[in-house]
Here is the input.
Amino acid sequence: MKDVSFGQYYPVKSFVHNMDPRLKLLFLIAYIVAIFLARNFYGLAACLVVLLLAIAFSRVPILKVLRAIRGVLFLVLFTAVINAFFRTGETVYWQYGILCVSKEGIVFSAFLVCRLILLVTCSSMLTYTTTPVSLTDGIESLLKPLTWIKIPVHILADVMSIALRMIPVLMEETERIRSAQKARGGDIEGGGLIKKIRAVVPILVPLILSAFRRADELGDAMDARCYMASKKRTKYKKLRFTWRDLIGFFVGAALITGVVLFNVYEAFLWLPV
Here is the structure.
């Protein structure tokens, strides 16, 4: 649970932190599109360069960003093994029954691993550099056209903001419950798979009860402050596009253009995938 970085905010003043949250959301969408458009390592290399620039200008420690990978390390390894042993190709290094290790399988496996790592790290960068309140305002502003078809965008934005705020709170609560169970002599980490599944119940039940209790307290606190999720509510801080957002827009457009060009001229590159 400590390795889950999504929903955590890193407070520091930087170029990326001061960007408009709407632009950062659109940039993240464009970045994900560029990752899936990439068909060779040149496209992924361009995405990696943009990600490293974003990390450098955000002043978020690189080790803190890489912690996001540890949370999905099992998925990354599982994907790599499956594609490395079950994808056939022309150049076969080893084969036994349905298992096959080929050059094409290894290259494709490495390609998918790089794609997954870029996806996880870029998503974590959004929450590292954007507060939940700013993220809520950005989502509400981008989804504002949905109000034309009577969709309560302001309520959806509030729900997303509360959900993001609860992620680190629930992680801390889980750690406290685990420590309490260990102090009472509970064997949580030992034993086989069935025993570990049973050990989850003493943690999961108090966690669910705590989540309901916190939700009830949050509702009472919002009622006590006369909070109304009305679409006519004013904003304390107005969202405005600045020169930073213009730079981010051009970087996102250049990234997608570069990835498309790498795909078009793939035949002229020396490392096709």
Remarks:
- Strands lie at 92-96, 99-102.
- The longest helix spans residues 193-224.
- The mean pLDDT is 80.
- The longest strand covers residues 92-96.
